[in-house]
């Protein structure tokens, strides 16, 4: 990934996420308004844990009476591993989802109306309130190898009986085709994205390339990697990444 020339106006941005499916994404509006080229490329991808590796965790799925889903990805890999292990999930199993959309996604795998399904309003604390009404259940929590520690921490704090199950993992994408491509700004949304950058380009030099990050943990990873953080979101005057980018570009391209 090449350096760009100092003093040149910002024209090309690479966002380390999948291309938005919605045509009304603020990224497209940003590109049109400021005459930019914005490319999208996931720097990380999710892979399922092999059933043989899952067995090493010694997690017995049928001995649990409830499953806590914090994402659709968790739903997919729970039912994938159950199928690979030829497990029959009992109809009495209760499902607790982070939000209504995740709950409805269960229809892909089960007859929705015949199962006991509960959901929160999108935040972990909301889901904890729902779980409090089911304190006697033994919960299974499908997670990625890289997951937010507040999930198990809050479950422990509220004295729930639960088992973590690592069913999928975050791995770096192959970005070798970007080796000779120039970008003026690289946009990151997770520490894993920064890790992928250096796994793909061990000799990466930032030079005049601007780095944008979303969230505190990503900003921390940028700095710990020895990179210069030029654009940060969310901030009081830029609650979204597109706003932060536009504010920076308007000043830089004067």
Describe this structure in words.
This protein has 254 residues and is α/β, with parallel strands linked by helices. The chain has two domains: 12-43 and 173-252, Rossmann fold, CATH 3.40.50.10090; 47-170, Rossmann fold (3-Layer(aba) Sandwich). It is built from nine helices and eleven strands. α1 (26-34) packs parallel to α9 and α7 packs parallel to α8. It is elongated and about 65 Å long. The model has no long low-confidence stretch (mean pLDDT 94).
Topology:
Blueprint: E1 12-15, H1 26-34, E2 37-40, E3 44-48, H2 51-55, E4 66-69, H3 72-84, E5 94-97, H4 100-105, E6 116-119, H5 124-131, E7 138-144, H6 150-157, E8 161-172, E9 185-188, H7 191-200, E10 210-214, H8 216-224, E11 231-233, H9 241-252
Parallel strand pairs: 1-2, 1-9, 4-5, 4-7, 5-6, 7-8, 9-10, 10-11
Antiparallel strand pairs: 3-8
Helix pairs in contact: 1-9, 7-8
């Amino acid at each position: 990934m090449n350096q760009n020339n100092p003093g040149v106006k910002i024209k090309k941005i690479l966002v380390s996420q999948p291309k938005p499916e919605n045509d009304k994404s603020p990224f497209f509006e940003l590109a049109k308004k400021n005459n930019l080229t914005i490319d999208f490329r996931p720097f990380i991808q999710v892979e399922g844990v092999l059933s043989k590796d899952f067995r090493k965790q010694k997690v017995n799925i049928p001995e649990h009476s409830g499953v806590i889903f914090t994402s659709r990805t968790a739903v997919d890999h729970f039912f994938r591993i159950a199928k690979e292990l030829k497990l029959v999930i009992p109809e009495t199993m209760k499902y607790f989802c982070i939000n209504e959309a995740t709950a409805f996604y269960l229809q892909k795998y089960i007859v929705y109306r015949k199962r006991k399904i509960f959901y929160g309003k999108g935040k972990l604390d909301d889901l904890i309130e729902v779980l409090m009404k089911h304190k006697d259940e033994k919960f299974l929590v499908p997670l990625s190898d890289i997951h937010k520690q507040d999930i198990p921490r809050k479950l422990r704090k509220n004295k729930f009986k639960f088992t973590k199950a690592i069913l999928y993992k975050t791995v770096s994408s192959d970005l070798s085709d970007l080796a000779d491509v120039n970008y003026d700004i690289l946009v990151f949304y997770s520490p894993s994205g920064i890790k992928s950058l250096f796994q793909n380009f061990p000799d990466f030099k930032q030079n005049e390339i601007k780095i944008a990050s979303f969230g505190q943990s990503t900003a921390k990873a940028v700095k710990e990697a020895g990179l210069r953080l030029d654009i940060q979101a969310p901030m009081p005057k830029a609650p979204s990444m597109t706003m932060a980018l536009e504010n920076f570009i308007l000043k830089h391209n004067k």
